[in-house]
Structure formats: C-alpha cells, structure tokens
Amino acid sequence: MIVLQVKNIGKVKPHTWNMKNFTENNEEFTMIQFSGEHPANPEYGSVILSVKKLFGTFDDISQVSFIDDDVKVGKLLNYKKKIFGGYEVEIFFDTVFRHGLKYSANHFIYKDVGIIGLTQAEKESLHTIETQKELLTLLTELIIPSKKNVITSFAKTGFLCIPNENSDENISHFLGKPKHVLKKIVDVNGRQQLHLATFHLNDFNNDGFFDKFENFLSFYINIDDTENGWPQEKGNYCVLNEPPTANHSFQGEFEKAVNFDIKPILDLPNYNHSLLQVHNFSDEERERYDALRSVYMNLILGESSDTEFNKFLGYPTSIQNCVSYDAERLHHHRDYENYINDAAVHWNLLLQVSPYCKWFNFFDTFGDGTIYYMIRSEDFNSCNFDNCQVVIQNT
C-alpha cells in the first residue's frame, strides 16, 4: 500500500483523443465532462506530480485512486525520489477528458489531495469484512481523523445481491411464485401482491446473527396503479418471516425466479444520511466524509462502485433524500422538519431493489423507482416485521 499527498502538478502529457483509434483497437474508454460552458478538447494521457509520501511503499503498486468525492483512477507509470525530498510520480489516465487533460486535471488534482494505491494482493484481500474494516479505519485516520470513532461506529455489514442466470426457488431468489396463502399477501383492495423476493437466511453467513429469526424472509408489494402514487402506505406491501405455505393456488402468471450471488460488504451511509446530521458534521466534514466513502467504496468494489445494487441489510443507497428520514416521515405522516433526524436514525435497511441493478419485467408497468424496505431497530431486534415501511425513490 502507498499513500501520497499532492504538492503540485509538474507537467501534463496529453494525447489527442480519436474515437476511430479506440474503436479499431477495441479499447474501452470512459469520457468525463463537466456541466456548463467548457472548452471542447478531448484528450487523455498522463500527469507528472510532485508528491509527499505519507507512508507505505511503491512496490507492486500499479493503480492509484485520488481521494475525492468523485474518485479518479489512474495507472502509476513510474516514480523517482527527488533530491530535496518528496517524490515525482507519473500517472496515466485512459479516461477521455472532454475539456482537455490539463484543464480537467486542475479540477480534481489540487494541493494536499490524497492518493492511495493498493497491490493486487491487497485488493483481493478486501473480500472479507475484517480487511474492509482495517481499510476504513486507515482512510478515516487520513481523511477525517476528528470523526474516526463516529464513522467506524456507523459501519455495518450488508450483502450485495447480484442477480445471476440461475432460477432455483429452493434457495434465495427474487420473483418466482408467491410463497404464502392469498389472505396473507393481498393489498388493502384485496388484490394479490407481487412476490418480490424470498431469502433463506442461512444463505447469508453472519455468525449466528439470524438465529433468532425463522429461516425464510419474504417480501411482497403492490405493483398496480403506480401512476397514482407509489405503494408506500401500509397495506400495499408486507414482509413475512415464516416458512412458505405449500399446496395453494395463485392467480395469474409469475416472472421466473432469479437467483443471485452474495457479496458481503462493510457498508457506510450516504453523505446525506440523518446520522451525519445527528452527529453534527460540519459542511467541511460532510465533504471529507463524502470523499472518504467514495474512495472506500471504489477500493472494495472496483469499477462496479458506481453500479446500482440490490442489497440486503447495510445502508440504503439513496437517490433523493435520506431514505431513513423518508421512512420516519412516511410512517408517521410528518412534514419535512429537522427534528425528524433524531428518530430517522433508528430506521434500518432490510431490502433495496433497484431497477438499474437488473430490470425485472414488472418494472415495465411499475416504473423505475428503487424500492426500499425499512425497519426500526427495536422491531428488527424483536423479530417484528409488521411495522416495516416501504420507501420508493427515483430520479
């Protein structure tokens, strides 16, 4: 591992971007551009920086990330020690900068910005919660040490549920046939709700965390009439922690079950979560926290860190407001007020289903809303799923 601090930009070595060259060589590229009026001069290339080494070694480091709320990743081409202290490093970006390399670099490379690089072995080790916690602790000490204890206390285990091509209803899955008798899964108008998912909790390795629950956790939701509003009122969804009921008939056709791969992560709340409000993060601390979370997620998830996920437990990935805040507001029919934050922090994510993780067929009529099932800590701890609150957000 290496951690660096930028002192200044020494030299920029741009190459004019030509889409024809990229496509002929079957090279993939990402183009970055800013909103507003900026020059049109698409370039890629490398930047030579003067840096201070905070700690670590350059050995086996090939890729580095800039510690910012919009993480930029580059390849470490070379480095050398300077006579009067510090190092000179050259970092190559295969990203295409729409407004020119030098012009764009000045927007994200600035004095004292941090750079972190991991070896391939260190990246591969980040599949465990323990190593993710070690990385989080290190980054917190570097980026926002005044809130180290608070931020590390935020961290909790979640499970990314990445859909695959299998369709086995005997293990955890999305969709498929309803698992319970009709009277348990009808909405307030007597209509059968969609079976969104059934999780077999023993599929999730969490050191006995689920021992107090029944092994099956099923999620249902009303998908009709969303043009008149999202199904966020009680009676339009339900969560059942009980075994499936066999030998009963269902109405209509059902989407094929979709299994998923499970990836455990040590999750953090978004920068707009009520927790940061309750713990009195200043505007500057929020900016630093946002940068911390961005680079942390980039390091543990790689290129997929900007991907929308389906998720079990952990924190909701909000699209609009803090989802916990919305859960408290909707559950108690409250107006938007700051005092809600104190109660909002007790709402936790059960399940998040995003249409942009995988577009299930029901989204064609439901709409492109991300669905969050939320539960208060006291209800979760007592295995009471009757008071869950669904929140739906979209762009």
Question: Could you characterize the architecture of this molecule?
Answer:
With 395 residues, the chain is an alpha+beta fold. The chain folds into 2 domains: 2-125, no CATH class; 127-395, Hypothetical protein YwqG fold, CATH 2.30.320. The chain has helices spanning 19-24, 101-108, 120-125, 129-143, 148-154, 274-278, 283-301, 323-331, 340-344, 363-366, 377-381; strands at residues 2-16, 31-32, 43-56, 61-66, 73-81, 87-97, 114-119, 156-163, 173-174, 194-200, 216-221, 237-240, 260-267, 311-313, 347-353, 370-376, 389-393. The strands form 3 sheets. The protein has a 6-stranded antiparallel barrel with strand order 1-3-6-5-4-7. It has a 6-stranded antiparallel beta sheet with strand order 13-8-14-15-16-17. A hairpin with a 6-residue loop joins strand 4 and strand 5. Helix 4 packs antiparallel against helix 7 (283-301). The longest helix is centred in the C-terminal third of the chain and has 19 residues, at 283-301. The relative contact order is 0.13.
Q: Which term fits the overall shape?
A: elongated
Biggest sheet overview:
6 strands, antiparallel, barrel
The rounded distance between the terminal residues' Cα atoms is 38 Å
CATH-scheme architecture of the largest domain? Roll
Low-confidence blocks of residues? none
Number of domains: 2
The helix-and-strand class reads alpha+beta
Q: Portion of residues in helices?
A: 10-25%
Tell me the name of the CATH class of the largest domain: Mainly Beta
How many strands in all?
Answer: 17
**Spatial order of the strands forming the largest sheet:** 1-3-6-5-4-7
Please identify which CATH superfamily of the largest domain we are dealing with: YwqG-like
> For the residues shown, what is the average pLDDT?
90
Task: Please tell me how large the radius of gyration is.
Answer: 24 Å
How many DSSP H or I helices?
11
CATH domain fold name of the largest domain: Hypothetical protein YwqG fold
